[in-house]
Design a protein that fits this description.
Elements (H helix, E strand, L loop, with lengths): L1 H57 L1
Length: 59
């Protein structure tokens, strides 16, 4: 009985470790995505600024 319980606990622990790793990976990916979004937003603002400058030069 004790051995079985220990085996089950070991299995559960292993699964928990796997889940934790997956969660960490997901968190990392989310951080990367957020960074990319920030970069894209910055680029957009930069493009808008350049367009305004070009418009001013034309006028």
């Amino acid at each position: 009985m004790c051995a079985e319980v220990a085996r089950i606990r070991a299995k559960v622990a292993r699964i928990r470790v796997k889940v934790a790793r997956k969660r960490a990976e997901v968190a990392r990916i989310r951080v990367e995505v957020a960074r990319m979004r920030v970069k894209v937003a910055r680029m957009r603002t930069e493009v808008a600024r350049i367009r305004v400058e070009v418009a001013r030069i034309r006028i």
